[in-house]
Amino acid sequence: MNLRVTQLALLLAAAAAILIMVDVLGTVAAIAALGVIILGTLLAAPAGRGQGGGWWTLLAIGAVLSVAGATLTLLSETLGGLVALLGGIAVVSGSAMGFPVD
Q: What is the SS3 assignment for the chain?
């Protein structure tokens, strides 16, 4: 996988997670940010294979939690927001740990 693609995917996923956690641009932006998190996770997957790829597992768990949090918000805003926050933290952490600097 191209180094630049991985870097861009991780940067976009982390920025989208921060956008969701801060929640300043509204629902449409949050839904678009969820799509960016999923896309970034999928694009970074090849780089997460092999030894030292635990960061990608954290990134994927964060993506799943972010989507689950958005869905749970329909039932309980507090619980959904908490799950989405945990997902965002996991996405940002996974992106930071997996960011290639070569």
A: CCHHHHHHHHHHHHHHHHHHHHCCCCHHHHHHHHHHHHHHHHHHHHHHCCCCCHHHHHHHHHHHHHHHHHHHCCCCHHHHHHHHHHHHHHHHHHHHHHCCCC
**Element (DSSP H or E) covering residue 10:** helix 3-22
The structure's pTM equals 0.91
Residue with tokens 């996770």: 41
Q: Give the pLDDT confidence of 24-41 residue by residue, as tens digits.
A: 888 899 999 999 999 999
If one counts every other C-beta atom within 10 angstroms of the C-beta of residue 22, the result is 10
